[in-house]
Amino acid sequence: MNGAHDMGGVHGFGPVVPEADEPTFHADWERRTFALALAAGRAGQWNLDMMRFAFENRSPSDYLSKSYYERWLAGLETMLKERGLITEDEIKAGRSLGEPKKVDGILHHGNVEAIFARGRPTERPTSVTARYRIGDRVQARNINPSTHTRLPRYVRGRHGVIERVNGCHVFPDSNALGQGENPQWLYTVRFTARDLWGPDADQMFKVSVDAWEPYLEPADQAH
Amino acid sequence: MSHDHENDGDRSHLSEVELRVRALETALREKGYIDPAAIDLLIERYEKKIGPRNGARVVAKAWANEDFKQVLLADPAQTLASLGYAGMQGEHTTVVENTPNLHNMVVCTLCSCYPWPLLGLPPVWYKSGPYRSRAVIDPRSVLLDFGVELSADTEVRVWDSTAEMRYLVLPMRPPATEGWSEEQLASTVTRDCMIGTGLPQLPGVLPR
Predict the structure, then answer these.
(1) Interface of A with B in 54-73 (CB under 8 A)
(2) Residue among B34, B27, B172 nearest B96 (CA)
(3) CB of B102 within 8 Å of any CB in chain A?
(4) CB pairs under 8 A between A and B
(5) B149 and chain A: CB distance < 8 Å anywhere?
(6) Which letter does DSSP use for residue B179 in this model?
(7) Facing residue for B21 by CB, picked from A13, A29, A56
(8) Tens digits of per-residue pLDDT, A70-93?
(9) CATH number of the CATH domain containing B158
(10) Best mutation site among B21, B96, B131, B206 for testing chain A: the one with the most A CBs within 10 Å?
C-alpha cells in the first residue's frame, strides 16, 4: 500500500535525535506489547507479512501519530480481532468472556530459546532458474498495490543494477494475502542517487533495496 | 474491578495504553493463548541478553583475525550461526565492510528491520521518520546529526532492508590499536558504528 510507512525520501521530518544511553523499552507496556506480539504469532493465525501489513495499514495521520509500539499494539489487536481470537469487549473487560478459539499452538516457555535461536528463515529451495545475474541492468516496476508490498515508492520505475542474488525467498506480496509463500528469487538492486533523485544528487552515493523478481523487469525492455 | 480495590490506587497513575495492554494480556492469558512464563522469557531475552555487544565481538574478531574476516564476509550466515548469532531477525545476515573510500549505512525505510541477534532491538531513532525518510536521500546530513562528517570523496552506500536480508556494517579498525586484544577492540565498537551512523570510539575520546 502507498502508506505513510513508506518513508524513503519524504521531507520535513526534521533532524535525527539519538537518545543517550537509551533503554530497550521506555515503558512496561512496550516490553509487554513486544512480547505479546511475538508470542501470539505462535498461534499460527497469521504470518509475519500479515503482521507487517497490520502495522502499516492505517491512515497516514493515524500511522504518524502513533509511537512505534502503539503501532504494534494496534496491529496486534487488529490481528487478534480479525482472526476471532479476542473481542473488543474482552479487551475492555480485561478478561475472557467466551470459549477460546482453537489455535495451532502457543509459545511455551520451554520452547522460547530454541524457537528464537533458530529463527524463521525465508529462503526456500527452487527448481526455477534466476532470471537475472549480477551486473544485469534492471528497472523496478511501477506497481501500486493497495495491499502489502516491500517495493518502496522511491525506487519504482527507476533503473538499477543487480548486485547480489540472495536465493529464493517467501514473497511478501502473496504471503500477506494468505495466498501462500510463492517463493521468488530475491536480489539486491543498487541504484545511483542520480537515478533516484535526479541530476543534482550526490554522485558519491548509492542506495540498494532487496527486491523480489516480480518487482523487476529487464532495463532494455523498459523503453 | 470490585475484586481489586487495593490496586485501584496503584492503577490510577497508569496511562490508558498501559491499562489496555494489561487488560489485553490478562484476556489472552485467560483464553490460554499465551504462557506468561514465555512472555517473561522473551522480555528477558531481548532486554537483557541480546544487544550490540554481540555484534561488537564479531567486529573485533574480524579486525583481529584476517582469515576470520574473509570467511565472515564470504559466508556470513554460516559464520554468524557458528558463533551463536543467528536466529529471529538474523536468519539471512550480510556483513558490509567500510573502507577508506566507502562508508556503509543501514536503514529500513518501510518499518524497522534490524539484525536482532547482533544488535538487539533497534533504538527509537532507527524506527523514526527522520532517519527512515532521510537515510536514502541525504545520508551525509543524517551522519552530521550523529557528528560524523565524511570527506566528499568517500562514497556513501545505503542498504535499505526491504526483505529478510539483514545488514551489519564492519567499520574500519581504529588507528593505533595494533596488538590490542579482541576484548579491547570490542570496547571501541559502538552500536551506531555497526549501523553505519557512527565510527568506533577510542577510550577517552568522547562521542561528538
Answers:
(1) 55-56, 64, 68, 70, 73
(2) B172
(3) no
(4) 268
(5) no
(6) T
(7) A29
(8) 999 999 999 999 999 999 999 999
(9) 3.90.330.10
(10) B21
B175 interface with A at CB cutoff 8 Å = no
Q: Which residue of A has its CA nearest to B130?
A: A13
The answer to whether residue B101 is domain-embedded is yes
Per-residue pLDDT reduced to its tens digit, B49-73? 999 999 999 999 999 999 999 999 9
Query: Looking at this predicted complex, what is its ipTM?
Result: 0.97
Q: How far apart are CA B47 and CA A138, in angstroms?
A: 42
Are residue B21 and residue B100 in the same domain, yes or no? Answer: no
Q: Which three cell numbers stand for residue A107?
A: 509459545
Same domain, residue pair B158 and B102: yes
Closest CA to A216 of A146, A147, A144, A131: A131
Q: What is the pTM of this model?
A: 0.95
CA A105 to chain B, closest CA, distance in angstroms equals: 8
DSSP chain A: ---TT--TT--------PPTT--S-SSHHHHHHHHHHHHHGGGSS--HHHHHHHHH-S-HHHHHHS-HHHHHHHHHHHHHHHTTS--HHHHHHTS--SPPPP-S----GGGHHHHHHH----B---SSPPS--TT-EEEE-----SS-----GGGTT-EEEEEEEEEEE--HHHHTTTS----EEEEEEEEEHHHHH-TTS-TTEEEEEEEEGGGEEEGGG--
Q: For residue B31, list chain A residues with Cβ-Cβ distance below 8 A.
A: 85-86, 90, 96, 100
